[in-house]
Amino acid sequence: MTAQGDGSREKYTIGEVVEQLRPEFPTLSVSKIRYLERRRLLSLSRTRGGYRLFSRRDVELLRYILKLQDEEYLPLKVIKERIDRGEPFYSSQDSPDGLSRLAEDRTYTREELAETVEVEPPFVDELASLGVIGRNGDLKQRDVEIVRMAREMAKYGIQPRHLRGIMAAVEREAAMFKQILNPDLRSGDEARIAEAMHKARHLAGVDSRLKELMMASIIESFAP
């Protein structure tokens, strides 16, 4: 893409940004970006002729918003609250995917994870032994969040061993998604595999939101 503007700071047109991000987000369009700007999730500079210009930071912020929509199925109001709180979404010009990538890639020892979440190491060990964390051999940022939520549930008497049933249900649902997407996953075509992984994450987000709504309906029936 052609750099514009003053100094070494790169600027991109809205069309260039759509072209750049569409492999990750196939449904991305110019109109969607304009909508996000109207909702004040993006604040873009303009040329004298009124054309929108994106800095590298703007591009990474947009990627962050789209990931939260597609992978966590969050409403725009919640995403805006995260942005307004100043949550990091990039690190530097040299690594546009920045802090989010660094957080995802960092690994923890059991002691480091326990200290981060303020639990005892045996609590971490039990979750690992049940396959709730460390499924790929390493303890990563995702596992930190899982342990943090498990600690919160333990406050109500729901111990790690009780999560075995939840984990089994998750595995069944993941197996169903994999079966649906297997033709693409086993195609050997990198583009098809990447698209299948994107669909799997989207399905996971929809599934999570669906269960949240179903649970809310059930909880409402608790009261006599």
Summarize the structure in short.
With 224 residues, this protein is mainly alpha-helical.
Task: Provide structural commentary.
- By secondary structure, the protein is mainly alpha-helical.
- It has 3 domains: 12-102, Multidrug-efflux Transporter Regulator, Chain: A, Domain 2 (Orthogonal Bundle), CATH 1.10.1660.10; 106-158, no CATH class; 171-224, no CATH class.
- 60% of the residues lie in helices and 5% in strands.
- It has helices spanning 14-21, 30-38, 56-71, 76-84, 98-105, 110-117, 121-129, 141-154, 164-185, 190-220, and strands at residues 12-13, 45-46, 52-54, 107-108, 139-140.
- The strands form 2 sheets. A 3-stranded antiparallel β-sheet has the order 1-3-2. A two-stranded antiparallel sheet has the order 4-5.
- Helix 6 crosses helix 8 (141-154).
Topology:
Elements: E1 12-13, H1 14-21, H2 30-38, E2 45-46, E3 52-54, H3 56-71, H4 76-84, H5 98-105, E4 107-108, H6 110-117, H7 121-129, E5 139-140, H8 141-154, H9 164-185, H10 190-220
Antiparallel strand pairs: 1-3, 2-3, 4-5
Helix pairs in contact: 6-7, 6-8, 9-10
What's the CATH C level of the largest domain? Mainly Alpha
Helix content: 55-70%
Q: How much strand?
A: under 5%
Instruction: Describe the largest sheet.
Output: 3 strands, antiparallel
Domain count: the total is 3
Overall shape: it is: globular
Secondary-structure arrangement, i.e. CATH architecture of the largest domain: Orthogonal Bundle
Order of helices and strands: EHHEEHHHEHHEHHH
Q: Going across the major beta sheet, what is the strand order?
A: 1-3-2
The third-level CATH topology of the largest domain is Multidrug-efflux Transporter Regulator, Chain: A, Domain 2
Q: Tell me the span between the first and last alpha carbons.
A: 62 Å
Average pLDDT across residues? 84
Please give the radius of gyration in angstroms.
Answer: 21 Å
